[in-house]
Specification:
Number of helices: 4
Order of helices and strands: HHEEEEEEEEHEH
Strand content: 5-15%
Number of domains: 1
Helix content: 10-25%
Structural class: alpha+beta
């Protein structure tokens, strides 16, 4: 019987494998396209990341102030209701002068009046404050951002006594805090780094709300951190454009006593600093 030959099948077509071809890989156009997309994504994400950082700094600042004010209250409980004096709680002097060791010396904090109650020195520094002290050739973060209201002092101290001497309340014991009520009486403030020196914040109680004796911070997107006598903390957003113009230089001293008549931000601060006797 004759055997028929098997049909010969055509060889299957083999598709070229790009990886096996000479010069395989991304073309120049491919690379430029990828780079362009990455640059575009970076531009889109940058504002979002900046907006995320601001709320985080606000939260950390409020948390720092809340812990400081709790230490302040505990001090009073342990000292027969006596409140820390704003001129005694911190004995350093901060500025931008070279080789001023007070700028970086945490001993004034850990050995200060609140030291036994607030043991972490980092809590005294606002996370938005980038101020530095220069020691030799080194630049180090300054240790302090927070100041205490000068209404927490003896009646002959501070800058409250604009107008009639002895007209405004000073608070030396917890029982003195009747007006304003503790929820509306601020104790600690994030001071403008250019203004900070002795950590005692002066408010000129001029009836017209006329001047910034010391400078407030604007580092929280135009806002400033406060801690109040009842234990709460908040970020106050300033509204007057003159307040928002109190820029932070990190190099030069604040111009103390800046006149800004009828500034509602100054009025807000005065209303929460003291009250007539």
């Amino acid at each position: 019987m004759e055997t028929l030959p098997h049909p010969v099948s055509e060889p299957e077509a083999v598709l070229p494998n790009r990886d096996q071809q000479p010069g395989a890989g991304f073309s120049q156009i491919d690379l430029l396209t990828v780079i362009g997309v990455l640059v575009l994504l970076g531009l889109l994400l940058t504002p979002a990341l900046a907006r995320t950082r601001l709320p985080d700094q606000d939260f950390r600042c409020r948390n720092n102030l809340r812990q400081l004010i709790q230490g302040w209250r505990m001090y009073a409980e342990d000292n027969s209701d006596k409140l820390p004096n704003c001129f005694d709680w911190f004995h350093g002097w901060l500025n931008y002068s070279a080789n001023n060791t007070d700028n970086t010396n945490i001993s004034y904090l850990v050995n200060g009046l609140l030291g036994p109650y607030v043991k972490n020195p980092a809590l005294y520094k606002c996370p938005a404050d980038m101020s530095q002290g220069t020691l030799g050739t080194n630049k180090l973060p300054r240790v302090m951002s927070v100041s205490m209201s000068q209404s927490f002092s003896y009646s002959n101290e501070g800058h409250l006594e604009d107008g009639t001497p002895g007209y405004w309340r000073h608070y030396q014991k917890s029982a003195d805090m009747a007006l304003p009520a503790p929820a509306n009486l601020w104790v600690m403030i994030d001071e403008n780094p250019d203004s900070l020196n002795d950590a005692a914040y002066a408010v000129a109680m001029t009836p017209s709300g006329g001047r910034w004796q010391d400078g407030p911070s604007i580092l929280h997107d135009g806002g400033c951190g406060f801690a109040f006598a009842d234990g709460h903390s908040e970020i106050k957003q300033w509204t007057d454009r003159r307040t928002l113009a109190l820029k932070v230089t990190y190099t030069t001293s604040f111009s103390y006593g800046q006149s800004q008549p009828n500034n509602p931000d100054i009025r807000w601060l005065q209303d929460r600093t003291s009250a007539p006797k």
